[in-house]
Write a structure and sequence with these properties.
The complex is a heterodimer of chains A (321) and B (193).
Chain A: H1 12-29, E1 44-49, H2 55-66, E2 70-75, H3 87-96, E3 101-106, H4 111-118, E4 122-128, H5 134-148, E5 155-159, H6 166-177, E6 181-185, E7 214-217, H7 220-223, E8 229-232, H8 248-255, H9 259-262, E9 270-272, H10 285-288, H11 295-314
Parallel strand pairs in A: 1-2, 1-3, 3-4, 5-6, 5-8, 6-7, 8-9
Helix pairs in contact in A: 1-5, 1-11, 2-11, 5-6, 5-11
Chain B: E1 18-22, H1 24-42, E2 47-51, H2 56-71, E3 76-79, E4 111-119, H3 123-135, E5 140-148, E6 160-164, E7 171-176, H4 178-181, E8 185-190
Helix pairs in contact in B: 1-2
Classes of the chains: A alpha/beta (321), B alpha/beta (193).
């Protein structure tokens, strides 16, 4: 693997290898006082973030440091970017300084792909516009695998702002690759056109024409009893310019995960949220803190998954492109 | 039980690609002898056997069984994956990670015997010594290997050797165990390179 830009087109073997590595890393660090592995000593990872982020940036930084890589954080505000430098020049500058891997977050969809064509380093997409956020999908899959055993044959319901969500896009592709069904619940205005036909990954031939892996609905109460996991999405106010729903209160009543709705889920089902949460909006306070919510597990697994990604990219013989 | 892939000649004229050096009975006898040697050198102090995946782990478990049989007490057995500590990661495609599972009482002041199937360059053992240090400070570390095939690249030697097997660098030594390969044997193959 040279870059991690998208979950679309990732083969099941690759995903499973990454998740297995993450699990092994988690276990290797378990109960140790010194959480430091020498594996990436002498390698430099640069995080280049053009959008605000707490967990993703910190998670990549911790992942790199626990494997002894040197991690340099470049926030776009307060750097040369503010002086008008282009993405390409910034990236080439960082590469010239010896970066081995650039972790990029950018508001423009496709930014990571463009970057991968410009620089000789490894590129990890940490979120590009409304397109992809592959490590989030991987950590969700790691968490689900931990809780449900396998994703094969499971149903995952994704609720909310699918239209603006790179988390949803990455998850849909990855979950289908791992054999799960995905049910999307959202107001019609927040569903992208043609979403039923998503999931055209490398394993498409396994799905029959009449049983597409992605289904769509607008009734959350009806969807919950048949789901193994429910993934709540944040309503992305910063990407919304226009009336996508009448009011936040109405959204919350129709699509928020309340205590009562939690009771509709099967006993084994878990609740995920990629964060940051808007408590009281898409998820109720008590639900976010209930034992069914695996939100802190997601964050914890995020570090191990990102360690696994860095391990697969940086700790092997360079593939000839 | 299926035989290991590639046994014997495929074509009519080609020499056999794989030759059996030790059969199942001999492997068992060698493990028993190693168990006696460990007891002789360490008793009455209890030892902790730490197997290096893949085949060091079943060997460590067998050794523990024999030590229990001959010496009366069963040593603790742990698993130590050294992949993350290797110095040759960037010379190969991505190596999958294995589990690490060490006895709960920890390594501090224990007499650790590392167990592996084949001792060759010594780099795996060097990585294992680095890895062990992260988990504690053993009183002493010893090394037990089923096969020593020579060609050391580091100043490392084994305390217990099942069998010395002089080889050339273009040969591969394969240790097959029931637990991982369905059969017990030691074979030698011409390298494909």
């Amino acid at each position: 693997m040279r870059h991690l830009l998208t979950t679309a087109g990732l083969r099941r073997e690759t995903v499973t290898a990454l998740l297995d590595t993450a699990e092994a890393l988690k276990q290797a660090l378990l109960g140790r006082q010194v959480r430091k592995l020498p594996t990436l000593r002498g390698r430099t990872v640069v995080t280049l973030f053009y959008e605000s982020s707490t967990r993703t940036r910190a998670s990549f930084e911790i992942a790199g440091k626990w494997m002894s890589a040197d991690v340099v954080n470049v926030p776009a505000g307060g750097s040369s970017v503010a002086k008008g430098e282009s993405l390409r020049d910034t990236a080439l500058t960082l590469t010239a300084m010896g970066a081995d891997c650039v972790v990029i977050r950018h508001p423009a969809s496709g930014a990571a792909h463009r970057l991968a064509g410009w620089v000789p380093t490894h590129v990890v997409n940490a979120g590009d516009g409304t397109h992809q956020h592959p490590t989030q999908a991987l950590l969700d899959a790691a968490t689900l695998r931990e809780r449900l055993g396998t994703l094969n044959g499971r149903t995952v319901t994704i609720v909310g702002d699918v239209l603006h969500s790179r988390v949803a896009r990455s998850n849909i592709e990855l979950l289908i690759t791992l054999g799960a069904r995905v049910h999307l619940v959202a107001p019609p205005t927040l569903l992208p056109w043609g979403v039923q036909n998503w999931g055209s990954g490398p394993h498409r031939e396994e799905w029959e024409e009449h049983s597409r892996p992605v289904t769509v609905g607008h009734d959350l109460d009806a969807a919950l009893p048949g789901t193994d996991a429910v993934m709540m999405l944040r309503v992305q106010a910063e990407r919304m310019h226009g009336g996508f729903f009448p009011s936040t209160r109405e959204y919350s009543v129709s699509y928020g995960l309340t205590e009562a709705r939690l009771g509709l889920l099967p006993e084994h089902a878990v609740v995920l949220h990629p964060g940051p949460m808007r408590r009281g909006m898409e998820i109720a306070h008590s639900v976010a803190d209930s034992p069914r919510a695996v939100i802190t597990d997601q964050v914890r697994n995020g570090v191990h998954v990102r360690m696994a990604v860095l391990y697969h990219l940086l700790a092997a013989q360079e593939e000839q492109a | 039980m299926s035989s290991p892939a590639g046994t014997g000649a495929v074509g009519g004229t080609e020499p056999p690609r794989q030759r059996e050096l030790l059969a199942a009975g001999e492997v068992a006898r060698i493990v028993a002898r190693m168990a006696h040697q460990v007891i002789e050198h360490t008793a009455p102090e209890p030892v902790m056997l730490v197997g290096i995946p893949t085949r060091g782990v079943p060997l460590a478990l067998r050794l523990a069984d024999r030590i229990c049989e001959f010496g009366g007490t069963r040593p603790d057995v742990g698993i130590l994956d050294v992949t993350l500590y290797r110095d040759d990661l960037r010379r190969r495609p991505t190596r999958p990670l294995r589990t690490t599972e060490l006895p709960a009482r920890g390594l501090d002041d224990a007499l650790v015997v590392l167990v592996d199937d084949v001792l060759y360059s010594g780099r795996t053992v060097a990585a294992a010594l680095d890895a062990l240090r992260e988990y504690g400070r053993p009183r002493a570390v010893q090394l037990a290997v089923l096969i020593d095939r020579g060609h050391r690249e580091l100043p490392i030697r084994a305390d217990y050797v099942g069998k010395n097997l002089p080889t050339s660098r273009d040969e591969e030594v394969g240790v097959l165990l029931v637990e991982t390969d369905g059969t017990d044997a030691v074979v030698i193959r011409r390298s494909r390179r």
